[in-house]
Design a protein that fits this description.
By secondary structure, the protein is of the alpha/beta class. Helix content is about 40%, strand content about 20%. Helix 7 runs parallel beside helix 9, helix 13 packs parallel to helix 14 and helix 19 crosses helix 20. The longest helix is centred in the middle third of the chain and has 21 residues. It starts with a helix and ends with a strand.
Length: about 700
């Protein structure tokens, strides 16, 4: 069906105009000017001819059904035309604004348009969009001010203005594109359909996108994960605000937000997120022109020391590695470089270097098995033949099997050299740091792609029936915050271990329970209305005798009543004191866009201050759980310091996956925290949950 949009045999421009200031004129002119090979039908009831073409009064007078109709008339007219068109329209681009984005009547217009399109089986871009460009079919069905060269980059965008700005940049820089797609309001066709279509498009090598939001989060992840196994997808996402206005009661809910959800979703789908439009196209050039390096070792060739140091510093801050040369490579470099040249990475071939020295250095370094890619830097010197150097780099690239990246630094003096590099398929960057970032993006894509190949999700044996019963009972009572004792039962049903415990309703009951459990013990206030017990002085640890148990029983009740006077208090929970191990947190918050967002980090009372956490969307496989653990800044503490044994990572990974399984099985759960959870070293093994909190949705 989308072939009629991207490769139409006929296009009708509804609202075509003689007036150069009208959108309908720009669209018609673009179709003619850029040599669209199909039939073009201008539609305007007040004209007979236009730009050398016969004009038709309405779509029903056109002598054939049209593959594509481009609308540049008001919303009410669009709806009337489609309603009366029969099945004369195969697909449509609605350029016009005045729909959902304008609110009020526009919302109703869009609903009506969507209903009509579904009834007549018309696929639509827009409304409120710039249009569509497909260089492969010479189709420019847009009001943009130009046409890019043919290339293998495809770009879709929610922002029409951004489309036109990027198009202008691409034309100026001579960067080739396959398709430019303006999504507009995404009434029908969304980023999901674009990913699916471009995955199979032989003229697209790399897919770029600008998004302000995702339409169907879970489907988006599924589709994108499939697409990124075939082609790189690079997306810039705007809007770095919170996920919504719902007040969060758990640590996970407080720390989670749309940014974490999008980053998690993109990582799991294998999407590279570009933090700026500059990065988006830096990365695009790398993927479009070069093969992905087989490893992370990058060699630098430069005619100036400063830029070489900048590049090396950037590498040290990234996941890229400085290549180490073999003795043979160093000896070979000595043979043709001047005595003052630097032979180790970066290789400084000195400011008077001409094309022959560049050629010899690049060819020699590229032969080294310890080099996976080469970054060539140039600053313009009086003796530099810049165009010849660019030609040499392009020629060497054609002869070697390793990617080359360049940074010709400067302005007017290097402009022609940059054009030569672009023509030769060499990505050039204004500054070395941007080149390093592009290489890092390629390595990240490769790593994400590999991790998706190990995407089998683990399912543990669990007791779903018990969990369902507890949740149903709580909902019937109107409870949103499940009592801690019940939350513990839910988590135990999913394989989480807790210390022995019991509820005391009197001081002497507490002393008896503590004695039976064995000292030391922990005492915690038990109240459905007090979620963060530490905040009200409701937790006391390491109690070693019955007299203290009795004393603290009254203290805890008194503090709770002072802090939350109207709280319903069930008593005081007495729990075994678990010593040793390190405190971690495993939690979940349900994101409105993507579903269950799983969190991992170091636990305890400071988690919201330190914010040293990582996120993924459930369900999870083991590789994703492993990456979550390694991503936190304090990961080295878990590996063991100063002679400590490493933590039991297998148990941590199991806990993360189990949390994801619980969240996937029960969409009623909107938040869940296990904080803290103690993880022991690899010799003792295991994890023990010390506190639990679960929030559910209303029935």
């Amino acid at each position: 069906m989308l072939e009629r949009l991207f490769y139409p045999k006929s296009v009708a421009v509804i609202g075509a105009s003689h007036n150069p200031e009208k959108v309908g004129h720009a669209i018609l002119n673009n179709l003619i000017k850029h040599n669209f090979q199909g039939n073009i039908y201008p539609i305007n009831p007040k004209e007979n001819s236009m730009l050398g073409l016969k004009v038709y009064p309405d779509i029903n007078k056109v002598p054939e059904p049209v593959d594509m109709a481009v609308f540049a008339v008001p919303p009410a007219a669009i709806i009337q035309i489609i309603r009366e068109s029969g099945h004369n329209i195969g697909s449509a681009i609605v350029i016009s604004a005045g729909f959902k984005e304008s609110g009020g009547k526009g919302v109703e217009f869009e609903k009506e348009l969507k209903s009509l399109a579904e009834e007549k089986e018309i696929r639509i871009f827009g409304p409120n969009c710039v249009g569509l460009i497909n260089t492969d079919s010479n189709l420019n069905a847009s009001f943009a001010g130009g046409m890019p060269a043919k290339g293998n980059i495809s770009f879709f965008s929610q922002s029409g203005a951004l489309c036109t700005a990027i198009l202008d940049w691409a034309i100026k820089e001579g960067i080739g594109f396959s398709k430019f797609i303006s999504l507009g309001n995404k009434m029908d066709l969304t980023e999901i359909e674009m990913l699916e279509y471009l995955r199979d498009d032989p003229n697209t090598r790399v897919i770029l996108g600008y998004l302000e939001g995702v339409t169907h989060g879970e489907e988006f992840i599924k589709v994108a994960a499939d697409v990124t196994q075939v082609k790189p997808v690079i997306i810039t996402k705007s809007g770095r605000t919170g996920a919504g206005s719902r007040a969060a009661s758990s640590h996970t809910g407080t720390l989670a937000g749309s940014e974490h959800a999008y980053n998690a979703a993109f990582n799991q789908a294998g999407i590279i997120r570009a933090e700026s439009m500059e990065a988006l196209f830096d990365f695009a050039l790398a993927f479009a022109y070069q093969s992905i390096p087989s490893g992370s070792n990058l060699a630098i060739v430069t005619n100036a020391g400063g830029p070489g140091i900048l590049a090396a510093d950037s590498i040290e801050r990234s996941k890229v590695q400085m290549a180490q040369f073999s003795r043979e490579t160093i000896e070979s470099l000595k043979m043709f470089l001047p005595p003052s040249a630097a032979l180790l990475n970066p290789v400084d071939i000195i400011g008077d270097a001409r094309e022959d020295r560049y050629r010899n250095a690049i060819e020699t370094i590229a032969k080294d098995k310890g080099v996976d890619a080469v970054l060539v830097l140039l600053t313009p010197q009086a003796m530099s033949n810049i165009d010849s150097i660019a030609e040499v780099i392009s020629d060497v690239y054609r002869k070697i099997d390793k990617p080359i990246f360049t940074s010709f630094m400067g302005g007017a003096m290097v402009e022609s050299g940059r054009r030569i590099l672009n023509k030769g398929g060499i990505p050039n960057y204004d500054y070395p740091e941007r080149a390093v970032n592009a290489v890092e993006a390629m390595l990240k894509y490769n790593a994400l792609k590999q991790s998706r190949k190990e995407a089998d999700v683990i399912e543990y044996p669990v007791n779903k029936e018990k969990v369902k019963s507890i949740i149903d009972t709580s909902r019937e009572k109107g409870e949103v915050n499940i009592p801690e004792s019940m939350a513990i039962e839910i988590l135990e049903a999913y394989g989480f271990g807790f210390p022995n415990r019991a509820l005391a309703t009197s001081a002497y009951d507490a002393a008896y329970i503590a004695d039976k459990l064995g000292f030391p013990v922990v005492m915690k206030i038990a109240s459905h209305d007090i979620l963060h017990k530490s905040d009200v002085g409701g937790v006391i640890v390491d109690i070693n005798n019955k007299q203290d148990v009795i004393k603290y029983y009254y203290d805890i009740l008194s503090r709770a009543k002072r802090s939350v006077p109207f709280a319903s208090i069930q008593g005081v929970a007495i729990q075994q004191m678990i010593k040793g191990g390190k405190e971690i947190i495993v939690g979940m918050s349900r994101d409105p866009q993507f579903g269950p967002l799983i969190m991992f980090g170091l636990g305890g009372i400071y988690v919201e201050v330190l914010k040293d956490v990582s996120f993924r969307i459930a369900p999870l496989n083991r590789t994703e759980a492993e990456h979550m653990v390694m991503e936190i800044q304090m990961y080295p503490l878990l590996t063991g310091v100063r002679g400590e044994l490493p933590s039991d990572f297998e148990s941590i990974h199991d806990s993360i996956i189990k949390m994801g399984q619980l969240a996937s099985d029960f969409p009623e759960i909107v938040e869940c925290d296990i904080n803290p959870m103690k993880v022991f070293d690899s010799k003792k093994g295991g994890c023990v949950a010390l506190d639990a909190r679960i929030t559910i949705s209303h029935k």
